[in-house]
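Slide 14.
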Amino acid sequence: MRLTHLADYAVVILTAAAARPGDDRLSASELAAETGLPLPTTQKVLGKLGSAGLLSATRGIGGGFAFSRAPKTITLADIIEAVEGPIAMTQCSGSDEVSDCALDSHCKLKPHMNIVSRTVRDALSGVTLEHLASERRMEDA
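Slide 15: predicted structure.
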């Protein structure tokens, strides 16, 4: 399994945001500068994270993004799913719906891949944004 660039960027952006002291609003331009990501990409990622309920946005002077939940309650699984959708190792895993795979109706692998997908998601759920941010703070010190 390999994360897309957008999922990777979401982890980088949120880790940078969570490593900041205090509860200040997060500016897309400041986060772009801090992470080295292009501003349009940062804005796109922040929008997806907002749509998923991980961030809330306020417009106007003093506006920006803020965490909707505490970083200790946000996991890698939450971040990845906010950008990518449900974590699944194959197209058909993680879903009981019939896929467009020619083997779907008699596939012997699908039940096993569902187990693998759940295990990967559980592992990603065990890593919090707070933990990632604390690791970053230690590296920056």
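Speaker note: The CA atoms of residues 4 and 62 lie 32 Å apart.
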